[in-house]
């Protein structure tokens, strides 16, 4: 039986696997949430499949997205990352990742967990949309606007509202699967069992 997916997911196998297993699934693990923050920042101006193809390289280069380690990166480490051809060598984004790790740790200390802080923007629940067509899905929302403003006040970089909305989609804070997609109902069931 052929599965109906969100149209973007059928463009290549990388997108298909990510769509079928991760996109829209609620994430409450702080390390995983930080991973999506890092990857979404690097994705700015690029296609998501570019990030997916380099995801494992990013994981190795950035110490499995361990914010405690990344927050302590030295200038030598930053320069070595700039020489790493297996990741996206954007100095601003690499430096932002270090700054963001430091801000991430401060939020963990203040709120108890990053999860507790970040999910407040959707009132600790997944926002379920009912899109018929992919073209109707917005690039941002009032929630992502608010998240972006708050993250910036905490010192985060590369956290504009569009990046924040992509993060919300990835972390399952919003279910933006189209209603005809087989994952639309599945993701909702995952969220309900998570409550």
TrEMBL record:
<feature type="binding site">
    <location>
        <position position="181"/>
    </location>
    <ligand>
        <name>Zn(2+)</name>
    </ligand>
</feature>
<keyword id="KW-0326">Glycosidase</keyword>
<dbReference type="GO" id="GO:0006284">
    <property type="term" value="P:base-excision repair"/>
</dbReference>
<dbReference type="GO" id="GO:0008725">
    <property type="term" value="F:DNA-3-methyladenine glycosylase activity"/>
</dbReference>
<dbReference type="GO" id="GO:0046872">
    <property type="term" value="F:metal ion binding"/>
</dbReference>
<dbReference type="Pfam" id="PF03352">
    <property type="entry name" value="Adenine_glyco"/>
</dbReference>
<protein>
    <submittedName>
        <fullName>DNA-3-methyladenine glycosylase I</fullName>
        <ecNumber>3.2.2.20</ecNumber>
    </submittedName>
</protein>
<keyword id="KW-0479">Metal-binding</keyword>
<feature type="binding site">
    <location>
        <position position="177"/>
    </location>
    <ligand>
        <name>Zn(2+)</name>
    </ligand>
</feature>
<keyword id="KW-0378">Hydrolase</keyword>
<dbReference type="InterPro" id="IPR011257">
    <property type="entry name" value="DNA_glycosylase"/>
</dbReference>
<dbReference type="InterPro" id="IPR005019">
    <property type="entry name" value="Adenine_glyco"/>
</dbReference>
<dbReference type="InterPro" id="IPR052891">
    <property type="entry name" value="DNA-3mA_glycosylase"/>
</dbReference>
<feature type="binding site">
    <location>
        <position position="6"/>
    </location>
    <ligand>
        <name>Zn(2+)</name>
    </ligand>
</feature>
<keyword id="KW-0862">Zinc</keyword>
<feature type="binding site">
    <location>
        <position position="19"/>
    </location>
    <ligand>
        <name>Zn(2+)</name>
    </ligand>
</feature>
């Amino acid at each position: 039986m052929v599965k109906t997916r969100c149209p973007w997911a059928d463009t290549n196998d990388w997108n298909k696997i990510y769509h079928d297993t991760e996109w829209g699934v609620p994430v409450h693990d702080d390390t995983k949430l930080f991973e999506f923050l890092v990857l979404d920042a690097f994705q700015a101006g690029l296609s998501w499949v570019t990030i997916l193809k380099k995801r494992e390289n990013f994981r190795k280069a950035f110490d499995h997205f361990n914010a405690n380690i990344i927050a302590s990166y030295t200038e030598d480490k930053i320069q070595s990352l700039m020489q790493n051809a297996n990741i996206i060598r954007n100095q601003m984004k690499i430096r932002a990742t270090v700054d963001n790790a430091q801000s991430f740790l401060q939020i963990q200390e203040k709120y108890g967990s990053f999860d507790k802080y970040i999910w407040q923007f959707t009132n600790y629940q997944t926002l379920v949309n009912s899109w018929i067509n992919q073209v109707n899905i917005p690039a941002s929302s009032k929630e992502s606007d608010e998240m972006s403003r708050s993250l910036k006040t905490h010192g985060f970089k590369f956290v504009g509202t569009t990046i924040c909305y992509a993060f919300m989609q990835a972390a399952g804070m919003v279910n933006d699967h189209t209603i005809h997609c087989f994952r639309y109902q599945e993701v909702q069931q995952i969220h309900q069992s998570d409550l």
